[in-house]
Fold:
Amino acid sequence: MSELEIQVAAGVDTAGGAKTAGRGRVSVVEVIAALLAALLITAAIAPGLLAPGDPLAIDPLAAFGAPSWTHWFGTDESGRDIYTRVVDGAHDSLLIGLTATVIGLGLGAILGVIAGTLGAAVDFTVNRFLEVLFAFPGLLLALLFILVFGPGPGSAIVAVGLSTAPGYARIIRAQLIRVRSSAFVEAATVQGLSRRRILTRHILPNTLAPLLVLGTLGVGQAIVWAAALSYLGLGAQPPAAEWGAMLSAGRTYITSAWWMSFFPGLFIVLTAVCATALGRSIERRMRHA
Amino acid sequence: MMAHPSAASPRAVSSLPSTVTFPVKRDLRMPRPGILRSAPRSATLAVLAGTAAIGLALTGCTSAAPTGDSATPVAGGTLTYASGDAEPTCLDPHVGGNYPQALVSGQFLESLVSLNSDGEVIPWLADSWTVSDDGLTWEFTLKDGVTFTDGTPLDAAAVQANIAHLQDPATGSSTGYLALAKVTGTEAVSDSVVRLTLAQPDSALLESLSQPWLAIESPTALERSQDENCAAPVGTGPFIVDSWVKQNAITLVRNDDYTSPPADAEHEGPAYLDSITWRFIPDSASRYAALQAGEVDVIDNAQPDTISQAEASDTIVHLDAPRPGASNRIELNSGKAPFNDAAVREAFIRSANVDDAVATLFQGSAERSYSALSSVEPLGISRPDLFDYDPDAAAALLDEAGWSEKDSDGYRVKDGVRLTVVFPVSTNQSIPAEQSLFEQIQATAKETGFDVQLTKLDLSSWYTALGSNAYDAVSAPYTKVGPDVLRILFDSAGITPAPSGYFANHAQLNDPELDSLLAQANATNDADTRAALYADAQDIVLEGFYILPLYDQQNHFLLSSAVEGARAMPTVSTPAFYDAWLTS
Amino acid sequence: MADQLTRARLGGLGRRLAGAVFVLWAVATVTFFAVRLIPGDPAEAILGGPGSQTSAEALAAVRAEYGLDQPLSLQYLHQLGRLATGDLGRSYALNMDVGPLVLSQLGGTLVLALLSLTVAWLIALLLATWSTGRGRLARQIGSGLEIVAAALPHFWLATTLIVVFSIWWGVLPPISTADARGLVLPVVTLAIPLAGFLGQVMRESLTAALESPFVLSARARGESERGVLWRHALRHAALPAIGLSGWAFGSLISGAVVVETIFARPGLGRTLLNAVTVRDVPVVIGVVMIVALVYILMTVLTDLASRLADPRPMSTGTGAGA
Structure:
């Protein structure tokens, strides 16, 4: 990902109410974000509650229908209801986004911690390794991975995870170094606590604490990444109602049927925005707590 | 990286008594009314069309149909062509031999013969030809006074050199090599007469020689290294390769000493255009936007929705030129389960609702085909009776074939095995509308109990999947002039892979009777016998339910209305700009 | 003292160089094995692409000529050897030497990437400075815009811009042309999501900087709000964004793959995509190596820029990578 999170992790206050939202005060933005997240998660777990229809049911004679009362988001080129597909697609898209982020974070955390705790030589080696990963264009990495292992959500997940891992690793490592040289760790050392205890009791928790925030920020990005893979035809396979695939398919008809790409795109953006807003509010709470 | 199959036929070929051959009465040239689809589309498109007109540099055209009759050709100007097909790796169509090469090589290379719009063989570089009674000796008399653009004269020795080049394994020709498979020797009877000796009669020889992949190049140029010849082949055509900036554009300039138009050309002498810029724009939306904005003059691989927009527009003209050869069809792998059972094949075909899908996805730019061959092929037969959408009949067939149980997801099972159809789709060769068509077939077949698994793959991965027999259904285009394409696609010899892993008989049809029919048809030069044999052969293929025909290979060009006189060659439907001029 | 410093600097330089060589080697290795792992026969790729009906003799000849019949590890060593001497080999599909091919495409992509980075910086800077220090609403608007911008997929943004600026308003060409007009939409497409990222980073550090002690003292000295902003806070705010630029360049190359395809713009991204599709191993390796080289250069440059812009004395860099 990016070193943007260095700033976040370092506890810099972010937009949305640094001066007004104190401990426990909830802003409008946060409420909306939370509601949206709840809706999205419901859509992912139990799409039937929000959209009872069949996302795969074709109706060729109703193809390219504009948004209407019967089809809130219109229909696509095969007459499938786009609203139902968007709701159903939440499952695929969120799954890809979340799992890829977890993989990226997990791998990144392991690499970052290894680099920061096992001495200078290991640090140097891991840093070189990270540089190698950084030197690859992320899309190429994902492309090669998918071509070797075949297309599909599984490959997309791992590919996106691998591409984002080095970014997280750098952030975790930076955070670890900062924590290691911070005042209270110094104090603990002076107090005579063993290195091991300092590591497990103080350094690691403080280093890994921002992970949640990083994760929420990364989910949106992972979904956008997966959408790019769908554009290249390497993402979810038909007839899966994955947002990126729908966005890519709708692009062909953008001048004649704008709704086909508008609504999946809207939800990709909304998810990213919602995840970011939640991440920041969590981070703010954690700092104030 | 995309090679699209593309074409549409305005009318399906109907079934006739097999003793009658009928010509294809369709004029592929432009601008004659009849090709222009003026059927109005929806209001939103009219708005867009109006906006497109504003965006375009207005040429002052106000009539719905461009009128070529009153305009006089003007010399000069540069035409910009934007292709959606992949950029060729070698401009010499002798090397390899695919459609993207033919598109551009057709501008500067010419063949011995051509076809007219009725499908008859007409003179081009060869003025006349004869064939011996036993069909083993052909003699071609070449046109007088033709020289290649490097000064080498066109003579019998030149033709010999070309045939040798095609047959030489080092050249790596695939299409040309196969087409000349029966030619064992050549002889220069005189300067202008060349004799070809065959091991067996080949009724497809003339048709093969009309194709761009067997074009005649300068023998002097052929002696250069392959890299040099690939960069700028030398021919007799109306244009010359001036430069090729890879991954950017090819520049062709007019051949001022041009003397060899085909017999059905509109004029003689040099071409009108000064030059042609040949660009590659892989993204279909950008390609159309470029045409609307006036950045390019002609585009190919036009998508169905842009075709309807264009037809409603005053400033863009639609040229519909289906490719010859096979129709676009889904082939069912009869070499392994479940499609080794003819009943299951028939059930699958009857469970797929293709008509509705084609009508809505292609918005009238493609007509449903019920034939194994393109509608431009005079000897094609069409059997709509075999391809009804009939889910009840499909269900009954499956029940009888032992697939009467269904699992919890609604798919049929037999002995614990699910009725799965693995269907790899090449994103390079199937346009989005076609991919959606497959999705709809997947959905309707599911109702009968088929589990169709679509996988979108890039070209290389797709060929790999085919080569390793990892498919049950596949759609692969094949462009070739003449009904001999049936032999390539359905003769049992086509199941054996070439050393590269490629094979053409994806249906894995292995029928000795069919093989014999196709061999006989290829050997006879009698038109009636040939037609009858090919009709019987097609009946076997269609009645065996080995293929599900969809539509003609779509090949749509969109042209700015400033371009007059452009046409699609009746041979393989490549664009020809010899008679073309720009009105603004 | 100066002696020690020079030695330290040289040692640092040497380490840097060694690191760079290592990265290049690793990149070449990973790419080589990855592309060879993808299903597809390289001999076929050489002879005109997949599906070509080439003869057995032709395939055998090609295998012998390119050494494809040797064990993979041996081929790898040969490849390394060639790379070490600067020989990037010959494209399988394009009948060209890879070196000239890549260099001819590099210019276009570099121009695109650098312009996009610059425009992204400008947008991010403007947005961050406008929306900071003006109250909550401005901050939220700015932040919101940045988050949305960062979430826009390139291919969707490209098409939307084409529809609006080319099809509806007809003011810009939908594909790349020889002149500067053809650059506008591709650059904007790449710049907007990047601006979203950079803007978020800048705003946060800007806000932090505005609350820090040295700014307070500047205010106490009577400097105007704007003066404070521009003269003091901005330098601090720019630091992390400068550090990000190395990563940003890499992400621009990813974006270039999509943008160059949609706008039919010649460049490394499109070349790379085509090469991967037809399994043109030498070109893939060549492009990746060049990208890695440029990335390393960018990293060095941004490190230098960071050190120059960092007003803190004797700062050893806050862990932005060794």
Q: What stands out?
A: The two ends of chain A are 27 Å apart (CA to CA). Chain A is about 70% helix and 0% strand.
